[in-house]
């Protein structure tokens, strides 16, 4: 029997109408037997996410402020969903208990997780599936990361014999039974763990977009959709800012070789984007996607005979480490090395770092160049395929964009280019147009 694990994001379960769409999707394929819901998301741009409201309730209590007004917003949303779906479910008693627990000082994790918990109970009731509380099957170790062995064994056991079940996303429990959540957006991780534990044939991740686009639609008008992409290509693009999935959710399914299909709850007939472990490179369409980020600073260090000085780069990197700054990239020349650092990492530490490098490494010169943007052009069809870099650089030069840095990893699936922040949008448009 084929098994599909389906995870639905917050916008897919934001109100009763969305629940109806979700039910139609699940019941249209009997292989969809395990469902992982998020908490209700925004119904419109000015709306609140239930998870945010739950965090707010908990912080009200921490500051000794009554939570009634905020909690009412949450309670009314769930009550409306249950009544519009015509369910004979006493959601009020669940809400009362949660409110009391938070008032009595329940943890942040407990409070935040209740959005998924309640949506799970409602969805299980609506689908006539079993409800499995995530606290009984998703386990965190004492360091706060997932105990994969225990989690997989528990999930496998709970889902034996083709059981149809709803398991809320976003949380689990620690060894003492306390509720622990993943970082925000973490229901994606729950879906991935469930898929990997039972070796599902497919992990469907339903959201409000039809998968990944070749580039950011705020920068390029109507970019093409990506139909199929490898985990590796996706990792490169997500790292550079293209995001639909929680970053950590890819690893469990990638390790198990399970494909992920990103689908749109509002347009279920759209094929979406399929993420696979391996696919033949398409040499006719070598570029899968273009992503990038602004606001990097380059620290450029020169020293004669640097290449023969043992430990030079180690010293530079340990200065960054001591200052809790992680770097993005480190292209090097014969007697020079550059460290590319995101401004969000660097904050106001530039001067301290530069001084320490001067003191410890004794360079001939050290220069700081701010305002750089990075653009990654990614595709497994570019490896061993001549002329791709030429096409990228020609397009940038024709658009009058100056290239400040070039880096291509040995995997040959990503060409990284550093340009001025001000040229960022122009640069992405010109690369996109060169290949489309
Ligand atoms: N509801 C949680 C959040 O808003 C988790 C999730 O949606 O995946 O971050």
From TrEMBL:
Pfam families: AA_kinase (PF00696), ACT_9 (PF22468). Residues 377-436 form the ACT domain. One of its GO terms (molecular function) is aspartate kinase activity. GO terms for biological process: diaminopimelate biosynthetic process; homoserine biosynthetic process; lysine biosynthetic process via diaminopimelate; threonine biosynthetic process. Keywords: Amino-acid biosynthesis, ATP-binding, Diaminopimelate biosynthesis, Kinase, Lysine biosynthesis, Nucleotide-binding, Transferase. It comes from the Bacteria. It is an enzyme of class 2 (transferase). GO terms for cellular component: cytosol. Pathway: Amino-acid biosynthesis; L-threonine biosynthesis; L-threonine from L-aspartate: step 1/5; Amino-acid biosynthesis; L-methionine biosynthesis via de novo pathway; L-homoserine from L-aspartate: step 1/3; Amino-acid biosynthesis; L-lysine biosynthesis via DAP pathway; (S)-tetrahydrodipicolinate from L-aspartate: step 1/4. It catalyses: L-aspartate + ATP = 4-phospho-L-aspartate + ADP. Substrate binds at residues 51, 116. ATP binds at residues 7-10, 207-208, 218. CDD domains: ACT_AKiii-YclM-BS_1, ACT_AKiii-YclM-BS_2. Its EC number is 2.7.2.4. NCBIfam families: asp_kinases, PRK09034.1. Catalyzes the phosphorylation of the beta-carboxyl group of aspartic acid with ATP to yield 4-phospho-L-aspartate, which is involved in the branched biosynthetic pathway leading to the biosynthesis of amino acids threonine, isoleucine and methionine. Belongs to the aspartokinase family. This is Aspartokinase. It comes from Clostridium sartagoforme.
């Amino acid at each position: 029997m084929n098994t599909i694990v389906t995870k639905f994001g917050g916008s897919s379960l934001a109100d009763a109408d969305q629940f109806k769409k979700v039910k139609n999707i699940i019941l249209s394929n009997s292989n969809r037997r395990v469902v992982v819901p998020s908490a209700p998301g925004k119904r419109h741009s000015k709306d609140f996410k239930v998870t945010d409201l739950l965090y707010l309730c908990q912080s009200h209590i921490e500051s000794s402020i009554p939570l009634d007004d905020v909690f009412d917003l949450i309670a009314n949303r769930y009550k409306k969903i249950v009544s519009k779906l015509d369910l004979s479910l006493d959601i009020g008693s669940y809400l009362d208990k949660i409110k009391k627990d938070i008032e009595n000082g329940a943890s942040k994790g407990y409070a935040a997780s209740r959005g998924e918990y309640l949506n799970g109970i409602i969805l299980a009731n609506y689908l006539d599936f079993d409800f499995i509380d995530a606290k009984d099957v998703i386990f965190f170790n004492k360091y706060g990361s997932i105990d994969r062995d225990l989690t997989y064994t528990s999930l496998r056991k709970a889902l034996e014999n083709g059981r149809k079940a709803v398991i809320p996303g976003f949380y689990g429990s620690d060894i003492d039974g306390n509720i622990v959540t993943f970082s925000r957006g973490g229901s994606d991780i729950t879906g991935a763990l469930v898929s990997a534990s039972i070796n599902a044939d497919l992990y469907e991740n339903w959201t409000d977009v039809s998968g990944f686009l070749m580039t950011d639609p705020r920068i390029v008008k109507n970019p093409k959709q990506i139909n199929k992409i490898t985990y590796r290509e996706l990792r490169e693009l997500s790292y550079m800012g293209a995001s639909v999935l929680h970053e950590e959710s890819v690893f469990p399914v990638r390790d198990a070789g399970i494909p992920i299909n990103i689908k749109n709850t509002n347009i279920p007939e759209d094929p979406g984007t399929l993420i696979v472990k391996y696919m033949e490179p398409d040499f006719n369409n070598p570029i899968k996607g273009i992503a990038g980020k602004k606001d990097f600073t380059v620290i450029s260090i020169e020293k004669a005979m640097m290449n023969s000085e043992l430990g030079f780069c180690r010293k530079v990197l340990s200065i960054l480490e001591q200052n809790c700054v992680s770097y993005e990239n480190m292209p090097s020349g014969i007697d020079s090395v550059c460290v590319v650092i995101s401004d969000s990492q660097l904050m106001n530490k530039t001067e301290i770092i530069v001084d320490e490098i001067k003191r410890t490494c004794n360079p001939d010169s050290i220069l700081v160049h701010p305002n750089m943007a990075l653009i990654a052009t990614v595709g497994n069809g570019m490896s061993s395929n001549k002329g791709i870099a030429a096409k990228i650089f020609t397009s940038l030069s024709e658009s009058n964009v100056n290239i400040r840095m070039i880096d291509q990893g040995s995997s040959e699936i990503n060409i990284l280019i550093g340009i001025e922040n001000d040229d960022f949008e122009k640069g992405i448009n010109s690369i996109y147009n060169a290949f489309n």
